[in-house]
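Hi there, hope your week has been kind to you so far. No rush at all, and the record is pasted right below.
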Amino acid sequence: MTPTIATIMNHRSVRHFTEQAITAANLEQILNCALAASTSSFIQCSSIIRVSSSDSREKLAQFAGGQPYVASAAEFLVFCADFNRHRQIHPDAQLGFTEQTLIGAVDTALMGQNALLAAESLGLGGVFIGGIRNNPQQVSELLDLPQHVLPLFGLCIGYPAREPEQKPRLPLNIVLHQDKYQALDFEEVAAYDQHILEYYAARSSNSKQVTWSQQITATLSKESRPFMKEFLQRQGFSEK
């Protein structure tokens, strides 16, 4: 197993951090790794906002649904899809297409994953914060985001104060399809549900009794963030 694969396979979301700062050199390496991610058609339609203000961090923690580690992590980065830069270069740029929204989301997610993997390779830990989309308008106003910039997720990075258990993922034989899409094997799902039950019962904090199937049933039984379509269009995304 290579060191890169070992880093990837050891991933876990870290939400408790020490007070140790990240050196400027390490932060620069993390950010440069983010920039090295693949980009569709070389459009490079992502921006990263490093939030250092303690006041802004506290507000973002609340906007994200009361997640205190947004404020306490050594670094907090907000990853945005950004076509405003292109509009400044080319004022007549044709923007607002749904495909551009997809490109922006994909490219920005690749940058975020690169950043977290780089951080983990340096002995740091982190967690992605999709909760900033709970209040996207307030986040945009706080960060002074213009039209054609979309805040997608945040990333907390710091030195882990504890190492949480690794949450089991779906097994490969459920996720991988050969040549064509294949029917779901419910026996495999049942085995995975049992694995998740055992994981939640045994983990050191926030134990609970719920299967993965029960979790997704609860999550997908209602609309999440129903305001998002209106916000996207207000920011100049997915208008057509």
Summary: The CA atoms of residues 57 and 71 lie 5 Å apart. The chain is about 45% helix and 10% strand. The first strand starts at residue 46 and ends at 50.
